[in-house]
Amino acid sequence: MKPLVSVVVATYNASHLLHHAIGSVRLQDLEDWELVVVGDHCTDDSEAVVASFRDERIRFLNLPRNSGQQATPNNVGVREARGEYLAFLNQDDLYLPDHLSASLASLRSTDADLVCTPCAEVLPEQAGKIASREIVARAHGFETFGRFSPRTFHVASTWFLRRATALEFGPWRMENDTYVLPSQEWLFRAWRRGARIHCADHITVAVLYSGARRDSYRKRQSPEHDFVFAEVIASDRLRGALQSAARTYIDDQIQLRRRLRRRRLRNLTNVRYFRRHLCKALRSLSEAIAIQLGIHPHSLSNRWRYGSRGGLIAELKKFTG
User: Fold this and answer.
1) 122, β-bridge pairs
2) φ, ψ for residue 161 (rounded to 5)?
3) What's the whole-model pTM score?
4) What is the pLDDT of residues 139-162, one digit of tens each?
5) How far apart are CA 26 and CA 18, in angstroms?
């Protein structure tokens, strides 16, 4: 019997993170799922970690050679998926227990092809906070009136879509074929070709970016993941605090923008201030033109900053090890 939802996890030699990612899927209040874990030629104990759950809904596939990027294992996972609906989960992220059920309800109620939920990003370097059982998070992925914008980064762990939609718009492109992350290129491509994308307003994912943590791929432990899984995912002790912290961050940003707007009006006669905001306006205009031309708006700045396609990923790999 086919599952309702297929969850795809791409992983590489990070079994200490994979253990928590899988655990967050198994704690979902929607239980009709399969989990397809695709290793990018893992050489650690990832396969043993998957087997340790003894859950027939979980499959592990290990690629015969390493591709060095997420696009390849994610594309394999999509091909292997059997569910009517599809979700991705990065190995370093964690679903809150209602992610699948809330996303499914949102997709059905809006008749969308794809739903992006906001996430709570757990900031790095929080050893002191963890010791005092606190958590610092900020929200990502909120959109005004639920309208998708390609300027906003929507991490793949927050996507929920019909599998037919994933097949319709094709595979993720390789990192050397794009100036932006392959996930964001795919999302932009689908949107440009008419995919109906709805952005929900309920936080359902905790994101702990490896790319924001120096040498994260060289380390074999992550106290932040251990803490968030134990205190937020596996229990509800700090779940409300995490969501509240993230929403407070958004509220603070909204108030900040309002203050800046008022200050902008007061400072129109300030030449330096005017020049700075003229540059921002020109950048926004160039991004809008790029979107109309079918070019991802972040391609412009990434090409200038990193020089070549895949340059962003290359820099991240240097940072994370």
Assistant:
1) 137
2) -145, 165
3) 0.87
4) 888 887 778 999 999 999 999 999
5) 12
